Amino acid sequence: MNIFRLAGDMTHLASVLVLLLKIHTIKSCAGVSLKTQELYALVFATRYLDIFTHFISIYNTLMKLIFLGSSFSIVWYMRRHKIVRRSYDKEQDTFRHLFLILPCFLLALVINERFTFKEVMWTFSLYLEAVAILPQLVLLQRTRNIDNLTGQYVFLLGGYRALYILNWIYRYFTEQHFVHWITWISGLVQTLLYADFFYYYFHSWKNNEKLQLPA
Amino acid sequence: SSNDDVKDEL
User: Is the ipTM of this complex over 0.90?
Assistant: First the structure.
């Protein structure tokens, strides 16, 4: 495992911890999109189908369990926890899941490396992860006051994607790593979705202002 | 196999 991959995974882990910290400690999920969280739960559930049948390393299994556990517990908190659910911006979080899930599923049926159940599900999870942040970005744009933790959560998620691209470039040159165009293209699309957010994040950081996205 | 090597990623 190279340094970019490890840094990417740790950034991903940090993003989840920041979100859990906000929800668990402050008992608030204001500004967090439940739609995006449900999509991530679906992404991990469909990607890690072989978690107990295909062993890679203890690190790998542990991280998979963390991502599965954290995504489902965040969804549970936002839907069921009697205090946390009150802070959910339901009226603002209106993005339709199905507009993302259905096209991703159809695309996975058509464009995949092997037409098997596991492979189609794995491909679907890659396509869905690429666009799963969209409801969150739409919600951020509608929310006038983005709190620090929510801003950091999205920033860390975007950072994780950027580091994965460096990881693929590194692997390409050092390991004769087989190029999976599906992984590369959906990963690139996903990272580009954060470009706009990054621009305003750095802008507010540089000027020491509160993060606000233009309407 | 080459198809599996990318699946060591999360």
Answer: no
